[in-house]
Amino acid sequence: MGRPGQPILDRLAFERLTAVHRRELKLHCYRMMGSLHEADDLVQDTFLKAWRARSQFEGRGSLRGWLYAIATNSCLNAIKARSSVHRILLEPERPPSDSRATGGPAAELTWLEPYPDAELPDLVDDKPGPDARYEARQAVQLAFVAAIQLLPPRQRAALLLCDVLGWSAVETAHLLGGSTASINSALQRARATLGQSYPRGRPLQRSQPNPQEGLLLERYMQAWQADNLDGLVDLLREDATYHMPPWREWYRGRKAIRAFFGTVWGNFAGYRAVATGANGQPAVAVYARSHQNLAWLPHSLHVIEPADGKIASLTIYVPPLGPSLFAAFGLPPA
Asked: pLDDT, tens digit, for every residue of 278-301?
């Protein structure tokens, strides 16, 4: 891939310089795209473009900023090229359901994918710039990534660069093109739209994992493995929400969620749960055994949003989407 006659060391040195930024760039691409798989492709594309254009950099400015510029523009071009501008966790304007799900998986929709904690940069050391409005742990939450997917691509990029990474409007205008005033205008519109997703204008503050959260996760896993539906529902807040991509239906409130689970709980002969992490939140991979097959096979990936010792929001990626995510989380196929 290098030019004929170019020393191999140049390539190795380039890879060493850029590799330290891989995880944060991949997370940036994920936030832009809402897709783990697209983020993988785009961060590889970013490094390929950077290698080919390395003579244009020549140490001017920040290598990190230069790589972010390439990655952001690659994401914007990829969004233009695909059929859907954004991925969703919930269809906009769709009210919560109060009956059993009957529509089946909505394969025609593009769903927001979860992000493995193993792929995250160190959230403790990932300090955003002084102008950032969101803490590192807030800006990886599944609900936050879902909310920014509803922004037009340029607004999304501006908000991520300024409010998540802490870039100035001047720096962002240089990257995206246009004037500083246009970036400030885009930010104002993006912040107003994002604020509508949160009653307090911003996502819940995510703290470091604590013993209470660990106990909640353990009780959640035990409820599944013990076939204890009542025990599972008891872990939910009264106003909890439940989403289940790729099904359109979603539910609000412990009573509605209990009623839905009651219609599907007996579909399998048993469950086994494995703890993992997604989007900086507790997560569980559930394997299920059917009534006809004794093998434990991937069934669903559960992302939990805890609050005050209870579950405020539960997102379960069910078949066929859920099992397809196991490999990306390093989970065995059986």
From this structure: 999 999 999 999 988 889 999 999
How does strand 250-252 pair with strand 236-243?
A: antiparallel
- DSSP of 258-316, one letter per residue? HHHHHHHGGGSSEEEEEEEEETTEEEEEEEEE-SS--S-EEEEEEEEEEETTEEEEEEE
Give residue-wise pLDDT tens across range 93-152. Answer: 899 998 888 888 988 889 999 999 999 987 655 566 666 788 888 899 999 999 999 999
pLDDT for res 2 = 45
User: Contact at 8 Å (CB) between 251 and 96?
Assistant: yes
As a whole number of angstroms, the distance between CA 157 and CA 297 comes to 39
Q: What are phi and psi of 312, to 5 degrees?
A: -85, -35
- Residue 7's Cβ-count burial label (10 Å; 0-12, 13-18, 19+) is exposed
* CB of 220 closer than 8 Å to CB of 186: no
70: three-class secondary structure by DSSP: helix
Question: Which structural domains are found in the chain, ordered by start?
Answer: 8-195 (no CATH), 211-329 (3.10.450.50)
Task: Please report where in the chains the tokens 């989007």 appear, as a residue.
Answer: 279
H/E element holding 242?
Answer: strand 236-243
Q: Cα dist. 173→128, 206, 242 in Å?
A: 18, 30, 39
